[in-house]
Write a structure and sequence with these properties.
6 copies of one chain form a homohexamer.
Chain A: H1 2-7, H2 9-15, H3 28-45, H4 50-78, H5 81-86, H6 90-100, H7 112-134
Chain lengths: ~140, ~140, ~140, ~140, ~140, ~140
């Protein structure tokens, strides 16, 4: 957060604060869980054992929840008003990314294409995240 | 979700889907936890016992997390693109409401004013929520 | 809790205490989760896709757990000895309601009738709850 | 559960069911967590370091929650109507035991006497539990 | 932990410390969850209802996770360097036991033989645990 | 696991296996949480507000738990017997690293030196991890 004050000087001073848990953020947390979802989906497609498939659905559900959680934390706790001004589509991007880890995405389908689509959206967020860190 | 199809007919058809866990949403879940946060803050102000205060801070932290979670679920799982078009400030409203349950709000201060501010933001969301349900 | 002291004056004075997290209780928390269970059961009956059905069973299990948790909190944390004296069947009602969200109820069967039975029991608890709040 | 059918033959046949997660219950789960609470309380009394005390309060809170959870599971999932008929004070015993792990007990005070009182109540439940198992 | 200092006198003095949550450990916690896993596996084999089987897989997964967690806590929080010197195979034993509650064990198969194998490994740990407690 | 011993010839074959949830591992998960712990410790040292300090202790406790969890998963789920043969100190390294996130490390002290020591141990694990991946 300290880096930010360099680049968004006037406005961010107003909103900047010392979030106790906020100094360390990394979209890698969401990405790793999403990679896990996609890997589970691929294994699901190659294995017709019903026990295995039940476990795969269960694990994809849990990991998708973790993706949503990590993205929500970034959206609420890391990104500040100046970021949303600079990247006007950022709200929508996060909303679509979290939806892509939900019922219309990796929860609702074991098709690895949904996992890949989720990873693409996280990559977009990751790019913006590092831009804001580098100012 | 069925009600929605009446009002946002063309566009929502495209995005509507049968979210398995989504039929039942209610901002009351976030509101009840936020009321709990505010009540804990008030008790904190009236009790200087250190054990009590430690527990109050801990519980306010947990309840604030629950507020954030319930709001995030509404934002991602309940609200759809047509809602965001109709209420252009809805993204920002949710972002501010979840921040108000974080380090710059009810987590970072035991002042009941932060709990009251959080409840006001949830009331704004609640109003929009019921408008979308009634079409 | 403050309201209670008006109605159960002598006895409750003895048992009343300042539960830090107890000022805010609402059976709506259990009801909302139970409505979710019933909605999931109905969708399960109308969809034979195995992935969907696995997710429905999983979600009904989780939501039933939440119902049990919310009811247990009411039974232990909100209701006090004077309530149990005034409503002698209250222990049994809570025991049956939490069982109705378990293996003999909404966990053990995806029949929406179990969800409806659970909601009826919660409605009975809700009625008593608001009677005790209004004195 | 199979043992039960020996002793409560007529009545329990009606209520007996194959709870998937219910074959294995043991009050030791609640007792171990309660012993932990009491040990933490004792260490709290012997250590005035504020960091240590904050952690002690936090851990006592978490472990007390686990005690409540394990007791609630026994009360709802293990004990059946015939047990409550045979031990008419069992509802009240569980209600007092779970309250003893709450704000009026081990959560609300770091006095090891509250931990000891909780352990006594769990010992009463334990005694009844094993009577019902031995039939 | 206090008992230990009697037996491992020179070395343990150096490593002994007052772990706030560590005074109370008991391998019974892992054993009870593992017994639950094995019971669920047996019921799974005797019931072909798909809803029941989905729940059984889900519960075995959760209970296996609890077994792993309880074993990890023992391995990291209870056992100290002098124990690992005295029992050179203890690291490997814990590694095999936690793997036996994972994908190559009770998570990956509903065969009760995997539950029995897990219980055997926990019994080995339990034997060492009580030897270290008795000095 | 039994299959593994068959094709342990080239090393990468050795690490490939079809554990359903295991295809994706990354020590970054533990590192990110440990960086958060250290950042929280530093902020604690620079802020004497009692509410802030209570929250800092609480968050360090939670994040330390996450570090332990992520490391335990690597130790049990990712690393296999051939790894432990090749790196004979790996068991001890993981045991020390998880202890370093416990009562004798980042839980028991808010000194950032404990956070730094934890990060060093994770870096050692990370180095070995990537060696085994590149096989």
């Amino acid at each position: 957060m300290r880096l930010l004050s360099r680049f968004f000087s006037p406005r961010l001073e107003a909103t900047a604060h010392c979030d106790l848990p906020c100094g360390v953020y990394d979209p890698a947390q969401a990405r790793i869980e999403a990679e896990s979802v996609k890997a589970v989906q691929e294994k699901y497609q190659n294995n017709e054992d019903p026990e295995f498939r039940t476990r795969a659905v269960l694990i994809a559900e849990q990991r998708s929840d973790l993706v949503k959680h990590h993205l929500w934390v970034l959206w609420t706790d890391y990104f500040k008003p100046p970021h949303f001004e600079k990247y006007p589509h950022l709200h929508d991007l996060f909303n679509r990314a979290t939806k892509a880890a939900g019922a219309s995405g990796t929860k609702g389908s074991m098709d690895p294409a949904t996992g890949a689509a989720l990873l693409d959206l996280i990559a977009e967020i990751d790019k913006i995240f590092w831009e804001t860190k580098q100012g």
